[in-house]
Automatic annotation (TrEMBL):
Family: Belongs to the dynein heavy chain family.
GO terms assigned for molecular function: dynein intermediate chain binding; dynein light intermediate chain binding
Superkingdom of origin: Eukaryota
Pfam family name, one: MT
Name the record gives this protein: Dynein heavy chain coiled coil stalk domain-containing protein
Matching Gene3D superfamilies: 1.20.920.20
Domain spans labelled Dynein heavy chain AAA module D4: 42-109
PANTHER family named in the record: DYNEIN AXONEMAL HEAVY CHAIN 1, DYNEIN HEAVY CHAIN 6, AXONEMAL-LIKE-RELATED
Amino acid sequence: MGLIVFVPTQLSSSTHAKLFIFRTFRKLSNGNISISIRSIEFQSVALQFLKDVEDLNVSETILNGIVVVFQFMHASVVEASERYLQELSRHNYVTPTSYLELLSSYTELMNKKKGSLTEGVGRLKTGLSKLQITSEEVKVLQEQLKEMKPALQVAAKDADEMIQIIAADTIVAEETKEIVEREEQEATKKAEATQLIAEDAQQDLDEAMPALLAAEQSLKSLNKNDIIEVRSMKRPPAGVVYVIESICIVKNIKPNKIPGMRPGEKLLDYWDPGRNMLSDPGQFLASLMNFDKDSITDEMIEKLKKYVEDPDFTPQKIAKVFSATLC
């Protein structure tokens, strides 16, 4: 039975001419597959089709090999369709158009692969170009490094010298640190000692404060007549003399030096200077009331020790002696 071959319009005129001879498509059997594969008509169509493909740069041997593969594939489909009909009584029509579709599929696949390869080649060229650019940049950097090498050597030398200076300064700093730590320890010890002294002084002050308050209270009880009576004494008792002497010491009134019992001996006499101090009772009392206790020096305190440590030098005993003298 004859079949009409429908050829796509985009095929060239030479391909039309070759395909036109296949108006009759005969079934292939197992006995004639090899004959069909090698048929001149199929071979001519495939060769003509492949020659019209652009950029198909292959040798004649490879081209013939491709054609043989096309013929074999087409004949294999014909054979399988024949078995399909015999075993299942179903038709699968294999026409010259199927052969053309096979050729077109090859062309499409080849173009796709060619595009992929072209893209890969483009990427490779881009990579090579970047490598070339990088190589040139590396050369420039190497030249710059070569020019900078003397400056880098100087900088390295300066860095070494600076490291040595820092090392020396570190040693000095460590020594200074040790000195500071020792001084800090000494200062801490002194601070602790000072704190102990301050605590002792505060304790002494706390102990002396009642006596000071009592003395101030006794001072307030004095009047001008008491001062006049003391000044008028010709032979004052020892307690009264002690009081006058201690007042002269804190008011920095110098004593008279009088001959002692032994030859060349000089005694300190505060009585006459003290009586002169009492010449104005009102002024004397005012000076005692306004006396600056902070003006007492260490030297004065040292001189006052013998009075303070004397068990008879107390306000009660002095008052008792003074009263007895008046009587």
